[in-house]
Amino acid sequence: MTAQLACFDEDVPVEGTLRVELEAEHGTVEVALVRDSAGELHAISDICSHGAVSLSDGEVEDCTIECWLHGSRFDLRTGKPTGPPAVQPVPVYPVTVDGQRVLVDVDAPL
Q1: Which residue intervals define the domain Rieske in the entry (predicted)?
Q2: Over the Cα atoms of the chain, what is R_g?
């Protein structure tokens, strides 16, 4: 598969998230579309690597998202945890904005 329509630009709030499900070669992938404080869009796995809960329910600050359950923070650019208790990164996916369309390629994690 290639990049597919995930949402429209106005669907993702500033310093906020939107949870979407996209089809990958290996099945459905839960993705959190996140707009950071600078207005940049990111696509990151919606599943926390520590607690297996939805990251899209967490708080966005600068270029990180915090898991609501145990407080792990992940860098939106790399998926790497920036603080405990998580030690494993989460996948991040390429995002392309084409006009108002937000496209994500879940088959090509960064």
Answers
A1: 3-104
A2: 13
Amino acid identity, residue 94?
P
Helix (H) or strand (E) holding 68: none
Which residue do the tokens 């006009």 mark? Answer: 99
pLDDT of residue 26: 87
Please tell me the predicted confidence (pLDDT) of residue 73. 96
Q: Hey, how many other C-beta atoms are within 10 angstroms of the C-beta on 65?
A: 29
Token pair, residue 88, equals 């494993």
Whether the model clears a pTM of 0.85, i.e. scores above it, the answer is yes
Q: From 3.50.50.60, 2.60.40.1190, 3.80.10.10, 2.102.10.10, which CATH number describes the 4-104 domain?
A: 2.102.10.10
Number of Cβ within 10 Å of residue 86's Cβ equals 20
Structure tokens at 7: 């949402």
Give the separation between CA 33 and CA 25, rounded to whole angstroms. Answer: 20
Terminal-to-terminal C-alpha distance of the chain: 15
In this structure, the strands spanning 101-104 and 4-8 are antiparallel
